[in-house]
């Protein structure tokens, strides 16, 4: 790899310039540039001035590199000459290269010592771009190699000409790497807006990026639709349209967007999974199950199995729900939600001990899972293990003191014939969770009522009767 200075000297009759001629060329170039007062406004050092000259097209001994592989890839995909490109890799962490930063350069090559610039003729310099130089150099994360010696320890990756346009589009779409961001000066702006660049021609990824950054939901959809008008197979735009409709709770429109994706890319499991979620929200549970099955066929994952379990539960197919939850747990053993939901399904099948085991596993994974404690209390009550039920309810309240539903532990106290404790718990429950009254109306309150009626007349008895009447729906 040789510099543009070497190529210029060759064209000028010096095919193999001596070291003296090589460095004389650079001294003359810098002297000539300074005679036009270039670099004086910003007080550039000789090295900084040389870097500017290189960037604006002068033939120098500097060879441009970028510290960012993706930026280097963008330049390798320049297709002006319709040929294959290359990305070059250079390891500068060797003794062959001498690093030079701004502070070192300014002190070593001050204006009083300009004649000493690059006097180590056999040395290759690695110049980092924290010089006082142009914005475009910083934008391009530019670094430079300078020296008379030929660079040998270099590797490269070939870029096919047919791949260049697609690579540049992806660099723009996903990393915001494009011409106007790499050439951040008036010269670069002018180049982007010259006759070689079409006016206001946006590609699909431009509208996609604008849609991603837009805050207004309706505008987001409009921008994604513009991307699709340009590229009808832009499935990611359809996916984002679907997620926006999900946020707007327009689930059928979201489903329609996901169906478009599946028509373009049938193996996009995210679309099947999201479509299943939306069908569940529309209470079309069988369609949700079908969508989850398709997602699982493409890529088995715990969320799809879990969501499918929820759909089966909605259809009261609890054993199928349990089987789905087990698959979710097999893939992700610490998935506490699946353990919890499996406990609910077991309770619906009246398999209360299995429900308790599932709740315990959920609590083991997530010790502050108050809902699991509460439902475990219900399961213990069904098994008439009332003290264990009370302990579970109390744990739910300890974790979440305002979880008033757990005061339905009154049922357990009633089972233990601790009637005053039962009344006190019911009073707290119906005061904070009025919907518990509807549940309580179905119960047989004969024993509790007998106990209250046998109490001696007192304010406590009257309070207890009031609670009892509320429980009975009177």
Automatic annotation (TrEMBL):
Pfam family, one: TPR_8
Domain FRG: 2-88
TPR repeat ranges, renumbered to this chain: 235-268, 302-335, 336-369, 370-403, 404-436
Entry-linked SUPFAM superfamilies: TPR-like (SSF48452)
PROSITE patterns for this protein: TPR, TPR_REGION
Keyword Oxidoreductase: no
Keyword terms: Repeat, TPR repeat
SMART domains: FRG, TPR
Protein name: FRG domain-containing protein
């Amino acid at each position: 790899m040789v510099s543009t200075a070497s190529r210029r000297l060759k064209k000028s009759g010096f095919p193999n310039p001596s070291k003296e001629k090589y460095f004389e060329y650079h001294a003359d170039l810098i002297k000539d540039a300074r005679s036009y007062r270039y670099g004086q406004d910003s007080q550039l050092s000789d090295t900084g001035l040389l870097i500017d000259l290189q960037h604006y097209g002068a033939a120098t001994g500097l060879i441009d590199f970028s510290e960012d592989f993706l930026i280097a890839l963008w330049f390798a995909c320049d297709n002006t000459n319709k040929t294959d490109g290359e990305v070059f890799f250079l390891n500068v962490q060797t003794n062959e290269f001498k690093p030079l930063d701004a502070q070192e350069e300014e002190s070593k090559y001050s204006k009083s010592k300009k004649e000493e610039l690059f006097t180590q003729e056999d040395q290759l310099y690695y110049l980092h771009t924290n010089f006082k130089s142009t914005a475009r150099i910083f934008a391009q994360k530019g670094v430079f190699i300078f020296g008379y010696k030929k660079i040998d320890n270099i590797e490269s990756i070939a870029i096919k000409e047919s791949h260049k346009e697609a690579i540049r589009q992806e660099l723009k779409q996903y990393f915001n790497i494009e011409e106007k961001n790499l050439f951040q000066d008036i010269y670069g702006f002018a180049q982007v807006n010259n006759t070689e660049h079409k006016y206001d021609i946006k590609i699909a990824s431009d509208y996609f990026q604008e849609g991603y950054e837009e805050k207004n939901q309706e505008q987001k959809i409009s921008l994604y639709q513009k991307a699709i008008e340009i590229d009808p197979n832009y499935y990611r735009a359809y996916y984002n349209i679907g997620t926006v409709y999900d946020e707007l709770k327009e689930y059928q429109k979201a489903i329609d967007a996901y169906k478009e994706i599946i028509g373009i890319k049938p193996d996009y499991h995210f679309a099947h999974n999201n479509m299943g979620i939306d069908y569940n929200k529309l209470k079309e549970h069988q369609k949700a199950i079908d969508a989850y099955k398709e997602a699982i066929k493409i890529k088995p994952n715990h969320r799809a199995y879990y969501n499918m379990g929820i759909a089966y539960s909605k259809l009261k197919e609890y054993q199928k729900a349990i089987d789905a939850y087990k698959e979710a747990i097999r893939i992700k053993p610490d998935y506490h939600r699946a353990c919890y939901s499996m406990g609910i399904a077991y309770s619906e099948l009246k398999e209360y001990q299995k429900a308790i085991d599932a709740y315990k596993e959920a609590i083991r994974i997530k010790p502050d899972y108050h809902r699991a404690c509460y439902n475990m209390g219900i399961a213990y009550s069904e098994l008439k293990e009332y003290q264990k039920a009370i302990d579970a309810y109390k744990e739910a309240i300890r974790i979440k003191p305002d979880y008033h539903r757990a005061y339905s532990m009154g049922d357990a106290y009633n089972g233990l014939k601790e009637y005053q404790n039962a009344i006190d718990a019911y009073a707290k429950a119906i005061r904070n969770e009025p919907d518990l009254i509807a549940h309580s109306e179905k119960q047989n309150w004969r024993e509790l009522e007998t106990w209250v009626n046998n109490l001696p007349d007192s304010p406590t008895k009257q309070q207890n009767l009031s609670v009892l009447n509320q429980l009975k729906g009177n």
